[in-house]
Amino acid sequence: MGFCFNADDCIGCSACEIACKNENQTPSGINWRTVKKVSPELFLSVSCNHCDNPECFRVCPHRAFTKRRDGIVEINQNLCDGCQLCVAACPYHAPKFDPESHKVSKCQMCYPRQDTGHLPACVEACTTNALKLVNLGEFNNPNIVRSLPGFPDISITSPSIVFFGQKTRKRYFLSQGRLKT
Ligand code: SF4
Ligand code: SF4
């Protein structure tokens, strides 16, 4: 599984970021998903990308990271000693160091939710469907691209995310509590 992000549909509302924080009750200042404005017309919503070749997995001297059969990259905080080598190595700045606990944490693709048939909290919260969860092995769409301007280098880790490129931006407005284009 992986994420699919449609830049044209993202309005930068940060609902995904807030839903993640609420779901995972991360400490103050630690957000596993962040929404960034990379240009006047482009927002990116970024978390751990559960890469095919995860750098965190490779550099951790304590083998705190594992990659599940479904592709999710997990961290076992009991094995983390806070060395932060993964923080330095990840191109997407996904592992977050908490100085209070002296541990690293990161997005686990909401596997407890997925294991019980629910979408990740961030995906469920996105009212415009800009952020989706897809089966990358079966997701063949001629319009998808592997990266967008402002997204970090994908060549090292092969992240599990695809994008739809930027076309004409849609504008959204609320009408009687419903989102309209
Ligand atoms: S919830 Fe959806 S539209 Fe809002 S910032 Fe996140 S990805 Fe973009
Ligand atoms: S999949 Fe879950 S943990 Fe990962 S960014 Fe989305 S809400 Fe946060």
Give an account of the 3D structure.
- The radius of gyration is 16 Å and the shape is globular.
- The two termini are 29 Å apart.
- The strands form 5 sheets. Strands 8-1-10-9 form a 4-stranded mixed β-sheet.
- It has 5 helices and 12 strands.
- With 181 residues, the chain is an alpha+beta fold.
- A hairpin with a 4-residue loop joins strand 6 and strand 7 (103-105).
- The longest helix has 10 residues, at 15-24.
- Bound molecules: iron/sulfur cluster (2 copies).
- The site of one iron/sulfur cluster has 14 residues, from helix 1 and helix 5.
Keywords:
181 residues; alpha+beta; 12 strands; binds iron/sulfur cluster; 16% helix; two-stranded antiparallel ribbon; single chain
Number of beta strands: 12
The assigned structural class equals alpha+beta
Main beta sheet strand tally, sense and closure: 4 strands, mixed
Shape: globular
Mean of pLDDT = 92
Topology (SSEs and partners):
Layout lengths: L1 E5 L8 H10 L9 E6 L2 E5 L8 H5 L5 E3 L5 E3 L9 H5 L6 E3 L4 E3 L5 H4 L6 H5 L5 E4 L9 E2 L15 E4 L8 E3 L2 E3 L1
Parallel strand pairs: 1-10
Antiparallel strand pairs: 1-8, 2-3, 4-5, 6-7, 9-10, 11-12
